[in-house]
Amino acid sequence: MHGVLAVEANSIVKRYGAITALDGASLALPKGKVTALVGDNGAGKSSLVKVISGVVRPDSGTLRVGGEKVEIANPRMARGCGIHTVFQDLALVGPLDVVENCFLGDEVYWRMGPVKLPFLNRFHMAQVTRQALDRLDATTVQDLSQPVEVLSGGQRQTVAIARAVRQEARLLILDEPTAALGVKQATQVLKAVEQLRDGGTAILIISHNLREVFAVSDYVAVMLHGRVVRTFDRRETTEEEVVSAIVGLDRNDPINSVQREASR
Ligand SMILES: Nc1ncnc2c1ncn2[C@@H]1O[C@H](COP(=O)(O)OP(=O)(O)O)[C@@H](O)[C@H]1O
Ligand SMILES: [Mg+2]
User: Fold this and answer.
1) Most exposed of 6, 40, 49, 100 (fewest Cβ within 10 Å)?
2) 151-162 residue pLDDT tens
3) How many CB atoms lie within 10 A of CB 110?
4) CA atoms of 257 and 264, how far apart (whole Å)
5) Which residues line ligand 1 (CB under 6 A)?
6) What's the CATH code, domain 5-91+171-262?
7) Distances (CA, A) of 145 to 99, 101, 165
């Protein structure tokens, strides 16, 4: 069904004490496609994203990146694998400017031969930041020396996405990217997502907005009780069908039909 997979999670289990947050969740993320991850509160979306981005270790299950099995012990290792996550709080630093945020933790210094000098190569970083924003067609972020705290929500999202672009992300994960944005800003962010997708990056987007999910995604993966119960091809499904799967009334899901029979 899918093309080349960028990242694959198989049978991931994660328990928090007596609570099973992930109960054998599997998800395949193809290159150059947008996959939306949907599901009711508590279904396990954030937990699955945290496992893929190295924030929490799973109790069992495997992750594959570019077909190779990997252990992702922390977010730094995830980034090393090309997995970048824009969490809801964005992790931008308000008083720092656009360039500094784009290179956070990864600053470039002037060098003299092999010797690193204690001066930031701001010129190089600004150039790369501009290129990343241009690749996103992000005309809304012009002045790179502005502190990000004065930017709008949409502009900040764009800076966070530009950071992933600069790092040549294999997979970009966005947790509710447009939840706090107006329509115009949300459109701008989704446009940036499409640019990145067209460059071959796999995108995983958590969203509660079904209209947006249908506008931007190629696949819709539905989580229920810690598992991905169904992955729809967006062109071959309807909002009604997706909602049925979210609430557990999907006739094609064998687990659900058994549960329905049992509850009669
Ligand atoms: N750190 C945690 N400690 C205890 N329980 C957690 C923790 N994180 C998530 N859970 C539980 O795991 C389940 C899945 O949560 P979550 O992954 O946040 O779902 P979603 O993002 O789909 O709303 C929920 O029952 C939630 O309460
Ligand atoms: Mg969540």
Assistant:
1) 40
2) 887 788 888 888
3) 14
4) 11
5) 16, 19, 21, 39, 41-47
6) 3.40.50.300
7) 7, 10, 19
